[in-house]
Write a structure and sequence with these properties.
Layout (H helix, E strand, L loop, with lengths): L3 H30 L3 H27 L19 H28 L3 H30 L6 H9 L12
Helix pairs in contact: 1-2, 1-3, 2-5, 3-4
The chain binds fe (ii) ion (2 copies).
The site of one fe (ii) ion has 5 residues, from helix 3.
Length: 170
């Protein structure tokens, strides 16, 4: 059985992951609107990943005999200046999420909830990856900023992203 505090916090995180999915889908739609299908594809896969994060938390809470309660998902931003602006916003968002995961881990510590700590460690590691992969794209976009056609070249690279195969614990 999971504590009420931990349950409430995990329900909040389910909402945060769903919002992440919604935000990235909105970014995908923006890329479609400015004819960058590779970037749109990348963001769509990112949306799917965020949904798996939400479902992972959903499954864990049920497994711990907790009660999942879904809340309204806030409307995401719909417009950005350009591709760099989008990825800088995505990086800032991932940094915010890392803070949320750290807070969850701190709570699990306070509650002496070892099962939650073990479970949350996956998210701690995942955030390192999420920040690094988003930052790598920010850096590339900065590099091609003044190169004519640079963003279109990058768009082809972004189109190559494949869905990650879920591991057993996912
Ligand atoms: Fe996530
Ligand atoms: Fe993420």
């Amino acid at each position: 059985m999971i504590s009420q505090k931990m349950q409430d916090a995990i329900n909040e995180q389910i909402n945060a992951e769903m919002f992440s999915a919604y935000l990235y889908l909105s970014m995908s739609a923006y890329f479609e609107s400015i004819s960058l299908p590779g970037f749109a594809h990348w963001m769509q896969l990112q949306t799917q990943e965020e949904m798996t994060h939400a479902m992972k938390l959903y499954g864990f809470l049920n497994e711990r005999m907790g009660r999942v309660t879904l809340k309204a998902i806030a409307a995401p931003q719909t417009d950005w200046k350009d591709a760099l602006d989008v990825f800088e916003a995505a990086l800032a968002h991932e940094q915010k999420v890392t803070g949320l995961i750290n807070n969850l881990m701190n709570l699990a510590d306070d509650e002496k909830d070892h099962a939650s700590k073990g479970f949350l460690q996956w998210f701690v590691d995942e955030q390192v990856e999420e920040e690094a992969s988003t930052d790598a794209i920010v850096q590339k976009l900065k590099m091609v900023k003044d190169v004519p056609g640079g963003v279109f070249m990058l768009d082809k690279e972004m189109a190559q992203r494949v869905a990650s195969v879920p591991t057993e614990e996912k």
